[in-house]
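@channel anyone free to eyeball this complex?
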Amino acid sequence: MKHSPTAAMGRVIGGFTGMGRKYGAEWWILIIGALIIGGIILMALLAPLIAPYGPHDQEAGPQLAPPSSEHLMGTDNLQRDVLSRIIFGARTILGVAILAAIISSVVGISLGMFSGYSGGAFDKTLSLIMDSVYSFPGLILAIAFAAMLEPGIMSITIAVAVIYIPTYFRLVRGQTLTIKEELYVESARAIGAPNLVILGKYIFPNVIATTAVVFTMNVGDAIMIEAALTYLGLGLPPSIVDWGMDLAMGKKYLPSGQWWLITFPGVMISTLALGFTMLGEGLAEILNPRLLER
Amino acid sequence: MLFILLTIVFAVIRIMPGDPVSAMLGGHAPDKVIEQKKEELGLNKPLIVQYGNYLWQVAHLDLGTSMIFKQKVTSAITDKLPATIELTVFGMIVTLLVGVPLGAYAADNRRSGKDYLIRLYGIVIYCIPVYWLGLMFQMIFGVWLDWFPVAGRTSPRVFVSTFEQTGLYIIDTLLINDWKALWDVLMHLVLPSLTLGLTLSGIFIRLTRANMLDVLKSDYILAAEARGIRHFSVVYKHGLLNAFVPILTMMGLQVSLLMAGAVLTESTFSWPGMGRLLLERIYLRDYPTIQGVIVIFALIVAFMSLLVDIIYALIDPRVRY
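replying in thread with the prediction:
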């Protein structure tokens, strides 16, 4: 076996296409999704280096200029460079969506495990609450939360996180109910393991795998909800750069034909959501082909 | 479910900072005026008393009176609800017309280029936010091509008062035989319902495709093929009719997505429905109206899932309760 960089590269590519042959289109969906996400995360991290102007720079160029070589995505009504705002805006939306998904998964998974494991009245009450929230339109709930909290990153994150808690709760509770009847849990209890140890060592590792797919899909969905809230003017103060807010601002200039103001933020929101959805789809098909058939 | 949601909403909007009195009077009103107003609205009573009063009202089908405008919440809602119903019904029609045939077609041509293309469309359209699709439609078909109006339910010159009976403008204009007004109403519906319908069509493509794949594998499809029935009618008559039962169940679950989409579509197209009512009143901290709107949304979701169960039993002779 050769050890040159090209040979290593060849093996990596060979591995990729090999996986491609094994899983078919799903594998490529996963890769494309991962590439999109990777690209946008990189863009967000390197924002100060690659953005041609500052996101708040009000003298970046002429007012409402169409895309040109100096301003690839044009400028807005306050003479700010749209491309730079897009680059910096990626930080907000990614941060909020990922943080929201983390919060809702931590809360949802732990509540689901405790509820499913303990059973009884606690379980019944909590399930009832979660089912009610689950069946209600999530966005409308998020609107209510976002509107009531002071605008800020934390508020919008909470507003988005709240609506996904029931998703994790239902998934994890259902699995916990099955797993706690398994023999290995039975035997752990028989040798006197405390409940917390059983939950942490025997149940948690078994439920965490399936939540990975849900988590990825969840981030994709949270991206659209975050942008929806800020598009409606909720959740964030105007000082923060955000795609949804830029979209709402561009809406005012739609009748006069400034197409670049709404086109680019929207394309970015869709692309980012698409990245996470594709990654989730690919993961789901490869890890557990039955999950999506529900 | 309704009761739990009511409780959550009641608690959330009162725990959070901001109240209707300061939203109404501005931040610098003298304390005395604020106290007086609070007493008038019953906001000085303990929360538990307010909560009890509210539940009592709702149990009597009274959603209270708006704190900002001297208007019954129920009448504000009956004003706006027909607009939302019209939008969602037409959105659903678009979704079904696009999603079900495409899904069935993809299943019939499984693992072909057409299948992948349709599934790709399904994923992409799912990821396009409904409000952005609306904006793009407004730009392309409203501003550039000038084919369709982009805001409201009617043109300004159409006198709504002449046909306002049910609030569903299509039925109203038909009742008084005003074809010109009907055309105007329909033209206003095109872009909003296309926007709402298309964004949901992706989910329906997936559902239809998955269910069709199962159905097409079954013995009666093979038997139908063997008897020499045309392939088209095997797939779209024998197959699709059988796949439709689970699709219908899923439709019940999509109602909440439809409602969320409607709120955003209304905001984009200045559609005077429930979503706009909710947003306007949220800024004013108008507790009774916010609660009322959420109750109605919850009622719609509950009612639709009941309706789906009933239809389910009607069209599938195997289901007997």
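from a first look: The CA atoms of residues 53 and 307 of chain B lie 31 Å apart.
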